[in-house]
Amino acid sequence: MKKVPSAVNTTLKNRVPHIIFLYWVIKTVSTTLGETGADMFSMTFKLGYWETIAIFISLFLGLLLIKLSLRGYHPWAYWLTFTASAVVGTAISDFIDRTLKLGYAAGSAVLVTILLIILAVWYKKEKSINVEYIATSRAELFYWVAFANTLGTAAGDFLSDNLGLGFMNSAILLSVILVIVALMHFYTKISGIILFWVAFVLTRPFGATFGDFLTKPIARGGLNLGTIGSSFVIFIILFFVISKETKLEKQRLANRKHGQWT
């Protein structure tokens, strides 16, 4: 164990998780639940896109207000907010692509433009788009506005439907690309922030296509497990991994309190 440098002590007020392997595991599970959950409410329960969006955007905003009021990183508050945004994102993406009939390609183009604008404004106001160390409410608000972008879901539908790759092949392709991005992080000098956003966007279509693979009929290339059963199983997995992250975060805080770094 090493003594914590004084500069590191500022991370005690950090509001967001460190980007480690467990972060990507939880994010992928959460995104998959966003896909199956949105389909469960909008299609299986027949609420439609508008009603699903209204319910979960209200839930997202409520959870976000709670999250913004907290100092420091609280895993359950963070990931429940993130999961609500994933459900909203899926429903909005489906609404744009199907109800407004923009199509997946045009929808993806619109969403990537919005994301780039958000990042540009964030950088102009905060002079940074660092996603590992967020210490103010304004910076965190930019963080969540960017994270709520629905680009990944639209891109996943574009791969599986427009390009005809199917759900499983799309998930495999995205997995390969994500591995390449991870290798670039460790073995190249490409900006870690740029690679983060590439991976962040790509994990959403991966979760979306994998969620569709679980729920869609066999005739469409899925496993036909249904949205209710799939969402329940994924929620149990999400509960387990967030509980694991909560224990690790408590251990990190305890180590820092005693002047240790792990």
Descriptive labels:
single chain; 262 residues; mainly alpha; disordered N terminus
Shape: globular
In terms of DSSP E residues, the strand content is under 5%
Helices and strands, in order, run as HHHHHHHHH
- Quaternary structure of the protein: single chain
Number of domains: 1
SS elements, strand count: 0
Write structural notes for this entry.
This protein is mainly alpha-helical. It has one domain (13-254). It is 74% helix and 0% strand. It is built from nine helices and no strands. It has helices at residues 21-44, 48-69, 75-99, 104-126, 137-147, 151-162, 167-187, 192-215, 227-257. Helix 1 packs antiparallel against helix 2, helix 1 (21-44) runs antiparallel to helix 9 (227-257) and helix 4 runs antiparallel to helix 6 (151-162). It starts with 20 loop residues before the first helix and ends in a 5-residue tail after the last helix. Residues 1-12 have low confidence and may be disordered.
Write the layout of secondary structure elements.
Elements (H helix, E strand, L loop, with lengths): L20 H24 L3 H22 L5 H25 L4 H23 L10 H11 L3 H12 L4 H21 L4 H24 L11 H31 L5
Helix pairs in contact: 1-2, 1-3, 1-8, 1-9, 2-3, 4-5, 4-6, 6-7, 6-8, 7-8
